[in-house]
Design brief:
about 250 residues, Rossmann fold, 7 strands
């Protein structure tokens, strides 16, 4: 049975990715910073799928955290790595007491440093595919007409770090090609489920598809890049945004 490692497993996207892989009969290891979130998620799964879900309580705050994690799990010989970790609390932007510098560093740490070290320091002998979860804001900057809060819902360090993650994907695709490891990324658009009705209405009017993405549209894109259906693709950023970035 193939082994999958997913960081950020109990977030909005992470939960859908986990469910997709266990239904594909993969053994899924996933990280979360909260035991409560892990327990809540596992309870939502059908019992037959829980046996293939292995939660790992892990906070990635420092390089030492990453090193310890790699040391503990390197021998598991993962076949697929999904870099999805981020911290929603970083969106609570503040301009006092140098908080914005902390947020910049934090976003870069989770979007660039963590994927880089996991991709290069975990055992690569069995690793076949890496997928970095990015964002449409790594492709284009936010549209000011969408927000009513002076970009506080989409601070500058989020898009900048996601753009860096897309370039990291290309760098890793080149550098890991000799080891037959494919590296791709996905830039998702906005999802329903964590925005109010007014925001959803504005977003839908500005998107070619006329709506936000549904949760069931998450895993098919991930699976495509992890399966042999995309065997010729590496260094690619797959944009799944309802057409947002073409306008």
């Amino acid at each position: 049975m193939e082994k999958v490692l997913i960081t950020g497993g109990t977030g909005l996207l992470g939960k859908e990715i986990i469910k997709g892989f266990v239904k594909k009969n993969k053994k899924v290891y996933f990280t979360s910073t909260s035991n409560d979130k892990i327990n809540q998620f596992l309870k939502s799964l059908e019992i037959k799928y829980r046996k293939n879900c292995i939660p790992i309580v892990q906070k990635f705050n420092t390089i030492e955290d990453i090193n310890i994690f790699i040391q503990n799990y390197k021998k598991l010989n993962f076949n697929i790595l999904i870099n999805n970790a981020r911290d929603i609390s970083n969106l609570k932007i503040k301009y006092k007491n140098n908080d914005i510098f902390h947020s910049f560093n934090r976003e870069f740490f989770l979007a660039v440093y963590l994927p880089y070290f996991l991709s290069t320091k975990l055992n690569q002998k069995h690793l076949k595919t890496i997928v970095n979860i990015s964002s449409m804001y790594g492709v284009v900057p936010p549209n000011k007409n969408l927000y009513e809060d002076q970009y506080e819902s989409s601070p500058i360090y989020y898009g900048v770090s996601k753009a860096a993650e897309i370039h990291l994907t290309k760098e890793l695709a080149v550098r890991l090609s000799e080891k037959k490891i494919r590296v791709n990324s996905i830039s998702f658009g906005g999802f329903e489920g964590r925005v109010n009705k007014k925001f959803k209405f504005r977003y839908s009017k500005m998107c070619p598809l006329g709506r936000m993405l549904n949760l069931n549209e998450i895993f098919p894109s991930v699976w495509f890049l992890c399966s042999e259906e995309s065997s010729g693709a590496t260094g690619h950023n797959l944009v799944v945004d309802g057409g947002w970035t073409i306008w």
